[in-house]
Amino acid sequence: MEWISQTAEELAAALRAGAVTSVDLTDEAIARIERDDKAINAICVPDFDRARAAARGADQALARGEDRPLLGIPVTVKESYNMAGLPTTWGMPQHRDFVPAEDAVQVSRLKAAGAVVLGKTNVPLGLQDIQTFNEIHGTTNNPWDHDRTSGGSSGGSAAALAAGFGALSIGSDLAGSLRTPAHFCGVYAHKPTLGLAPTRGMVAPPARALPTEHDLAVVGPMARSARDLTLLLDVMAGPDPLTSGVAYQLTLPPPRHQRLGDFRVLVLDDHPFIPTGSAVRAGVNRVADALVSSGARVERHSSLLPDLAEAATFYTQFLFSGFVARFPVDALEQLRTRAARLAADDRSLDAARLRAMVFSHHDWLEVNNRREFHRHGWRQVFSEFDAVVCPITPTPLFPHDHNPDLLARRIDIDGVEYPYFDQLVWAGVATMPGLPATAIPTGQSHEGLPVGVQLIGPMFEDRTPLRLAELLEQEIGGFQAPN
């Protein structure tokens, strides 16, 4: 039998029972990568020799009776994480030879938990795209359709999981970078509450790996089952030992409910800035129907919901002011000139992007103050509901588009074109206020392409959307391997 397609939980049980060895699992994963990855290009930095050595060590530990959560399980790591002895480039040609001296904190936690790291997965240039391609490592194709994107920026990790290249992966999320690839590849991902999992060592080269606090950005788990997300999140979560970990330990609250029928869920499928495509809307409705059939309380509207248009504008401003923080001065002057030409009443997302690129510190603080009102609004939402179900992007995976002018790209939604970056508004629903969100597969479109949705939960109650994901997996099915 093929072991590597099973879940991490199943593999852990088989390893403990002696039904398989870590060396067997690792060799099987490597063989599959060597057979299939030429067409997919998910594993950009293989580390097979060290993986085989780690597998031998895991088998010895298992024989001694050790019981660590990921002991002997083959995994992959997003290229943007530092791993001692391997290049970290973020897809930037000028840093193709940068090799960090130590592991990122999350890589250290994977290894301490007993995981066998097979290698690193591909990313877009600077992690700043909804697709995955760069000059150093080329393009990652979607295992479902090689002419389409696997998403970004954790597109290599999602493609690796869908193709069976390891049981788990770790990625990161600023603009849906965990959730969008999961949606496009038919796998699971969890964007943790902001600050729940430390990011030290997930840093653009050649910067030092310091324990800085990021705005919007998180690191999180990816898997082929909802229960595996919880397994990996428990390894990743908890304060950085260099900072708040000196004083605090993490205890996440349990999920609000154990039965699907006990959940109170707000379902959203309309956004004021962009329509939802028919395939994604059908996925949202499939989840809603399963909830209703189970006896859950399902609502389609709530007066408590913060204004989605204002939230999308704020999210766009945070995102793009951060993107240009290190722009050369002459480039900023050109942006200021363009922003000054905007009409005062232009409230489009294109205008919000351009204005944000030339934000002053005062401008940023004003928007940040408004964010706190939205966070309070979400607290009120979650006093009445346990989770929110909504799209991740308006469409399933789309064809590769490598137009270097990202602002000129367009996204096709049921035959009508919209600005490429407008599709980020759904990712921003959870990201802007820092909420946890779990991406789950909901089946396939009429074209046979995977479709997912996100389950947004209350801040620091990550176990609630994760439990809901587990229950929905049982109800509507979960990961399906590409044909």
Automatic annotation (TrEMBL):
InterPro entries: Amidase_CS (IPR020556), Amidase_dom (IPR023631), AS_sf (IPR036928), FAAH2 (IPR052739). Signal peptide: none annotated. GO terms for cellular component: endomembrane system. It holds the Pfam family Amidase. It comes from the Bacteria. Residues 24-464 form the Amidase domain. This is Amidase.
